[in-house]
Sequence to fold (182 residues):
Amino acid sequence: MSEPNPIFIGKKPVMNYVLACLTLFQNGSDSVIIKARGRAISKAVDVAQITIRRFATGIGVKKINTDTEQVKSNKTGSVNNVSSIEIHLGR
Amino acid sequence: MSEPNPIFIGKKPVMNYVLACLTLFQNGSDSVIIKARGRAISKAVDVAQITIRRFATGIGVKKINTDTEQVKSNKTGSVNNVSSIEIHLGR
Fold:
């Protein structure tokens, strides 16, 4: 398996996402993509750093992309711009 | 002037930092580095995205680095790991 597997960062504790990354790598993935929007961007960087520093030797950050996404609020119907990040981890 | 100018993202409103970036570019800088730690990382990505999308045509994200820094708490004296980000904007 070499196709990228996105992990979306939400409101769970950081370690849940670290574990998800490690599981993917141990199941043979060569690369994992961590995605986050808005406030979760900080947590995405934490997940990447903890994964590569504490647990996964030989894995590093290959590429980081940032973008802006338009999110429509369900409550008010207004459209907001939200920053997003994609962190590509790989062997 | 082509040496990089770091802008540290803190607790001020996003637009203050966008303005700081734009000022540096308009004073002739070729590149600006946006730095942030911890929770401010999300805001740093916002600053970069707003700068390149809304105001500064011809400027883009050249490189993004993430790292872990050790921060010593003044209150308790304990050392904590904090994620940090460096976003390099340039022409």
In short: Residues 27 and 52 of chain A are 16 Å apart (CA to CA). Chain A has a mean pLDDT of 90. The two ends of chain A are 13 Å apart (CA to CA).
